[in-house]
Batch of 2 targets.
Target 1
Amino acid sequence: MNETIFSARGLTKIYTSGEVEVRALAGLDLDILSGEMIVLLGPSGSGKSTLLNIMGGLDHATSGTLFFKAQDLTKLDDRALTLYRRDHVGFVFQFYNLLPSLTAFENVALVTEISKNPMRPDEALSLVGLKDRLHHFPAQLSGGEQQRVAIARAIAKRPEVLLCDEPTGALDSKTGIKVIEALLSVNEQLGTTTAIITHNASIQGVADRVFFFTDGKISKIQKNETRQKTAEVSW
């Protein structure tokens, strides 16, 4: 049995603006197992990105608990959260955030220089299908290739967790398939626990489980008994 890598109980996040309160998370409970590929689905404002930010140590919960293994992330200060992000978490966002003056290899190398047990940059880029594009600059790469460089950068430090917020949101379907399949390859070959936020319900078949969000809570969990091995049959 895989161990539980994240466990949330009564997780709440409230944003305030003057006298107005916005409850982004409303007492959410969940458990995620080590090595799982999960998809988070729901409309804008349903709490998906807020949860991902707290799981990644980018934001603080208002109340409740969120454990990463035996460590309660809600009790960590900013310095401890920085160390947690550095040592355990990789991020992939909708926009690639690559440095335009550096090659694909050099963009990935930035992460490996500050990591404890990194991959070689060329190894990470090969894993996402870019072994022939190591020395190309971002402007010489397609959108999908730039996103795969961003994935390589995220996984180069061998994180236990990969958190992806709309990684195909700026891409067409054909290019998006390649990006999702790069994430599948990382999950299968490295065993990285992977969470993907998306509005694209058609890719839910590649996940072990799908979490449906409504009003700051998980309204339904769907388990895929037979996970699809390629995004192409889902899109």
Target 2
Amino acid sequence: MDDCIFCDILAGQAEASFVAGDERVVAFADILPIGEGHTLVIPRRHAIGLHDLDPEDGAAMFRLGQRIAAAQRRLGLAEGVNLFLADGVVAGQEVFHAHLHVLPRQDGDALTLSVDYAPAPSRDALDTTAARLRDALEHTGG
């Protein structure tokens, strides 16, 4: 894929500090870590986001992410872990090759997650949305 830094890393045309990998996915240190051990897990096959990510590659990303999170905890790099995948510009995606952040968390670290919740929707509204999603899943094979 042209102009994809992660594809360049996979091709050996850009540097990375590799952590692990298999036939489907590879993990390497994030160059702008939020904390020591911040790791990215990417599929070897280029996929921009969730819409074109092979489901088996996605499963492999989360399996490796889970193993890395456990290693972060064992090493004392994490008291907790966030897994984060941004899908699309509005979600904060900056590199358009699907990737999973494995974020080691420590009490008082620099990362904050904040939500300004709107009032909770009614049960009828939730049921309506759930029905729409069920219908969409049935018509897309999902």
